[in-house]
């Protein structure tokens, strides 16, 4: 592959990557994805929509307050204010790129309600197929752009550094190693849900961007905070299809096999923050019960019209949600932690930016507010682009680097080691954690990550899982998406971010081994 060092390299073609690439125009961009578009982008699976204070009874300040409340004391107030303030401009940008948002019979934007929101502020595009609709429009705009070159099937293995600055990518395409020079590198690679056996994410979402950044020396932040969606549909799928939170926003209720409401005595009821609902469902599962989401009364015959995606999954499993409750369980859904970035999306490594789920901006804190993820991706994608466009960065054409072999796309997601990691993470680093389980996970993951026979993909997945387990072991308290049964209370002393680097969890020699530099 011929590299053009004057281009910006954006890795990831979900909403964060696409918004960044489109916002960089007319600056030349190479948009990189390891798979074929758009099947493996998590954006395409998003049902809930995008949050923005657009109603007459709403305001960015109210949206920010809800965001901070859900973040359980770990969110950054200035970031919440900034993102919610920029939401309307982000929505306008999406509309300009061809996104058609749902409207009511009067032509006004249709605004939905979701858990922990104090106002109806959830915008949808195509009902509960919002992610796919937004992605489709953005991808069409990117393909029509003369400044964006889309490269599919490129497996990035390393960020190339020169004098401590990111100046390109090493990787392979069609089994051929190559180096791609770039004036700036943007990671928009998504989350880590694929590290868990029960997940709503694409199975390829295993933190590849986190591994790239960690090996480059970047600071990672709040890695222990993983959000488990309480209503993944337990219909036998892997990944598990999502019963969108909008169902509960429209009155669907969580019940046990006897029809009793399981959230009746909990503040906020069925619309309590996701971590609270997830633990309530998990407790029933641990007691051997099955939990259901019942929309028969609240939605009934309107299911197929209002929630076509949920209806389609249910029908495929032989279930009619209009007349039968849907079996549900918690599943890994969103990673609040990621690469530490500032308000411009800059990481701690010069020349390296990050946005979307792979980044830790300070917005989500310990527990993401529903439908804030797409908003964050849009706002930060635009901010990253603005920052890069305003800079004069050195252009390097004389880059050389050793690229490690990359496994084929066909074998990378279904490896036996990944299956063991997913089971281990579900059991020991899941909804409810404790010292013994986290220590067991850490010990096993260290051995996996140090195995010199591992492919680059397996080494990366073990490395990311290890960092999550290590960070969870360090945080001896319970906040939001991180719950320790041995430390069930929140501690004021821990009301802070947790930063970690690869070098901190091993000696320098061990860090080199974990990075794959095995001589």
TrEMBL record:
Metal-binding listed as a keyword: no
GO molecular function: L-aspartate oxidase activity
GO cellular component, as recorded: cytoplasm
Domain Fumarate reductase/succinate dehydrogenase flavoprotein-like C-terminal: 460-497
Cofactor(s) needed: FAD
Database matches in InterPro entries: FAD-dep_OxRdtase_2_FAD-bd, FAD/NAD-bd_sf, Fum_R/Succ_DH_flav-like_C_sf, Fum_Rdtase/Succ_DH_flav-like_C, NadB, Succ_DH/fumarate_Rdtase_cat_sf
Biological or metabolic pathway of the protein: Cofactor biosynthesis; NAD(+) biosynthesis; iminoaspartate from L-aspartate (oxidase route): step 1/1
Subcellular location: Cytoplasm
Main location: cytoplasm
Keyword Mitochondrion attributed: no
GO biological process assignments: 'de novo' NAD+ biosynthetic process from L-aspartate
Pfam families xref list: FAD_binding_2, Succ_DH_flav_C
Entry's EC annotation: 1.4.3.16
Gene3D superfamilies attached to this UniProt entry: FAD/NAD(P)-binding domain, Fumarate reductase/succinate dehydrogenase flavoprotein-like, C-terminal domain, Succinate dehydrogenase/fumarate reductase flavoprotein, catalytic domain
Top-tier EC class: oxidoreductase
Domain FAD-dependent oxidoreductase 2 FAD-binding, residue spans: 8-374
UniProt KW keywords: FAD, Flavoprotein, Oxidoreductase, Pyridine nucleotide biosynthesis
PANTHER family listed in its UniProt record: L-ASPARTATE OXIDASE (PTHR42716), L-ASPARTATE OXIDASE, CHLOROPLASTIC (PTHR42716:SF2)
Family to which the UniProt record says this protein belongs: Belongs to the FAD-dependent oxidoreductase 2 family. NadB subfamily.
NCBIfam families found in the cross-reference section: nadB (TIGR00551), PRK07512.1 (NF005701)
Name of the featured protein: L-aspartate oxidase
Species per Swiss-Prot/TrEMBL record: Ferruginivarius sediminum
